[in-house]
Structure formats: C-alpha cells, structure tokens
Amino acid sequence: MQYLNKMKNKYINEFGNKILFSKSEYQKRVKEVKTKMANDNIDLLLIASPANQFYLTGYDGWSFYTPQMVLISLSEEQPFWIGRKMDAVGAKFTAFLDKKHIVPYPDHYVASEETHPIDYLVDFIKSKKLDKKNIGVEMDDYYYTAKWHDILTTGLPNAKFLNAFLLVNWIRMIKSNQELNYMRNAGKIANLAMKKAMETVDVGIRQCDVIAELNKITTSGTKEIGGTFTCKPPNAMVGKFCSAPHLSWTDEKLKKNEIFYIEMGGAKHRYHVPLARCIYTGKAPEKIKNLSKIIKEGLNAVLNKVKPGVTGHELENIWKKVINKYGVKKDSRIGYPIGIGYSPTWGELTTSFRKGDKNVLKENMTFHCIPALWLQNYGIVISESFIVKKNGPERLTDYEQKLFELRDF
Predict the structure, then answer these.
(1) Confidence band (pLDDT; 50, 70, 90) for 407?
(2) Sign of CA dihedral 145, 149, 150, 155
(3) How many whole angstroms separate alpha carbon 333 and alpha carbon 371?
(4) How far apart are the two ends of the chain, measured CA to CA in Å?
(5) What is the per-residue pLDDT across 360-399, written as a single tens digit (0 to 9) for each?
(6) Whole-angstrom distance, CA of residue 134 vs CA of residue 5
(7) Are 349 and 331 a contacting pair, CB within 8 Å?
(8) pTM greater than the 0.90 cutoff
C-alpha cells in the first residue's frame, strides 16, 4: 500500500498540484545539464527558451511575451524560475520547483520605459553572488534579445558570458518513456486530424473550413486523449502556392483539379508530432501521382535504414539515390528532430537529415522525415514522424502514405 501511495503521488509538486513528470525525472534532466555546464566551464546557465524552461521545470504558460528566465546554478539543487508576478501562480501549478525557487518580479517592470525585467534579473544574480561567474546564455534563441544581452553585460561587468545555445536542446533529444507516451498520444491526434481534413476537402469548400475541422480535432483530440493548441498553425497551400512550403490557407473555395498541401501537427502536453499529406481535388494526372510514388519510395528507403548509429548524412544519401534514379532533384534537408514545441517551432534545432550532417541517431530520439518536393508550379509531400528504436523506426502515425484524390472519399 505504501508503494501504491508513493506511485500515486509521484507526479504531485510541493503545492499539491499535478505535474507531468516525476520529480526524479526533472532532477535527472537538471543533473545532465549541470554535467554539461561543468564540462563547458559554465557556472550559471540562463535559459530563455520556453521549450527548455518547460523541459527543465515543467512550467507551461503563455507568458513568454514578456521576459522570463530559468536559471541553473552549479551551487543550487533546483533551478530558479523568474517571471512576472501574476505568472508565478502558474509556476506553482505546473513546475516541480519549491516556493523558494519561484521568483516573481513586480508588474512595474512590465512594458516600462524606466525599468526592464532583465534589470531585476541582474539584481537577483548579484544577490546570489553569481555576478563574477561564467554565465552561459542562449545567444541564438528566438527569445534572447539583443536588449537583454546588453542589460546583462552592462549590469554584470565582472561576469564572463559564454554561448550556451542548444546546450539543453541536445540533452532533450533522447526521450524518456513518459515523453514517448505523450508523443504517441500526439501522433494519434495528428492521425485523426489529418483524416478529418481529407474527408472535409471538396470542390466548393473554403480552404479555411477544412483547416477549421482539422483544428477542431487537434483541440478536442480523440475520445480517449484530449488535445490542445499546437505551437504553430498548419502550413496549408493550394494549387500554385504549393510550390512555397510555409504559406497559409485562405478563404478561397477549392476548385476542381488542384492540389491541397497540408503539413500539421498533433500535440499532447507540448509534445508535437507532425504529419504532412496532399489531396488532389479530382483525378490526379499521372505525372503528379508518379511523383508522389517516388516520394513514398524514397521516404520508406530512408525509414528502412533508420537505426541507432546511422547519421543524417547517410539517410539523406539514401533518399538521393532513390530520386536520382528518376531524375528528380531536391536541395533542402529531408528531416529534423522533434519533441517539445513552443512558438515558432516544434523542431529541436540541433541536427538534420542532410548532406554532411555527421550527428549520430540514438535510441529514443524522435524525428520528422519530410522529403517534400517543391517544384515551379506545385508541391507534393508525404511525411512520417518516428522514434528511433533498436530494430528500426517506430512510426508515430499510421496514416496511409499516398497522394489522396477526391474520389477516395
């Protein structure tokens, strides 16, 4: 009974609120980061990335439009979360941290011309006597601005600042069993949402109405698994706009004999699984169907070679061998690692399936293989997200690999 009670409560934080992972898993993540910090001669790590903050503390709030930071010090057992006072309540609900490590700054720092939240951070670092240490910062992160860096370097003149961009991202790449379970759930949601989108497509239906049905599923999820919002909207292009990979849908009605290209993702607890497919609003011309078959052949040739120890370079080379047989060319990467997603991306930013990438795949890493072809007048895609396992990839979705046609529905 004591063991059962312990298991029942292992996902509860100090405040009695449910958290997504056990305290021991968070501690393991922090320990791995500290080991890397010590190897890189970093005493204090400042983490601006919301995805990395979530990974290391559990904090999950849409509050990163105003400065917030997670600090990891080699001399402290737990990280510090520093953010807006009203958002500290959210930290108590979602983070594994104790109350001493949730540090709110007053609201007069927000959107002020006189003060800045990073000024508060500078004072906090001084109060902990860390102002003469080696400080690692995520130099190239979306959320670490030039203004922040200027305030930090000016306010802490005796510190040495080191670039720690992607330090946490690399550690995030190998997923725990609980993370993989969340991603499997996200894959089920992605599968169902794509199915609903394909079933909704018809001549005369507005593009936006198709995506509305897709978003309804990503939000509601399945009967067993509730959904949520994803970190980015679907890429959804029609006709000639399919030749550009990152555009959005419009309110135009679908016409006969055009391609509708959709790349979307399902999400569970911030863990994302992307999926991309195309549908032709009519009977597809043979050249377009043949191109989709080439993509499918190349995709599965890559998947058949996925295992621990293989590199992104080797996988891209397998893809190239397939498409070269057919005289097809592609000069962009065909895959990237996935996991936690906060705007603007579900990608982990570390490695790619591309020529020259010698980074090695390891068991329980997760990737999106997306060998799309964007041509002059249209584009075609069939993608798969998967887990690297000892004996090959475990697909996170099971949606049929094909160019769909309106007559399929």
Answers:
(1) confident
(2) positive
(3) 8
(4) 53
(5) 999 999 999 999 999 989 999 999 999 999 999 999 999 9
(6) 43
(7) no
(8) yes
